[in-house]
Design brief:
Length: 128
């Protein structure tokens, strides 16, 4: 478990508990993800064991959104072609934070989102 501490718009410190990354499977979604509002990230695992995030979003129902990603029912999720390619090509992982307040979700979604190297430029393990 990791605690991420961020500053909100009023300069207040905010703690987000990060429980790690899980394989994007129905079993793991059913076991770990609640049907609550929050932020979720999709990632691939690199050869050095680090998870590289390639997509971050927020949802009123994190479980429902991740289920749509898993079943490729992504019409309402506005996923880019690059995200679809990663989902098809790699074993993907997910992580999430539960945040009920929409304003907090907006700010924290931007804070945890970052652009790294594109997955094709990295050494990835767990390729499909």
């Amino acid at each position: 478990m990791c605690i991420l501490i961020l500053n909100d718009k009023e300069g207040q410190m905010m703690e987000l508990e990060h429980n790690g990354y899980y394989p994007l499977t129905r079993e793991h979604l059913d076991m770990y993800v609640p049907s609550r509002p929050g932020i979720y990230m999709l990632a691939i695992r690199l050869a050095n064991g680090v998870h590289q995030t390639f997509f971050t979003s927020q949802s009123d129902n994190v479980y429902g959104s991740l289920r749509k990603v898993l079943t490729r029912d992504t019409a309402g999720l506005q996923l880019s072609q690059e995200v679809h390619e990663c989902l098809a090509k790699y074993q993907c992982y997910f992580s999430y934070w539960i945040l009920v307040n929409l304003v907090e979700r907006d700010g924290e979604s931007k804070s945890v989102s970052h652009k790294g190297e594109p997955p094709d430029a990295l050494t990835v393990i767990n390729c499909n």
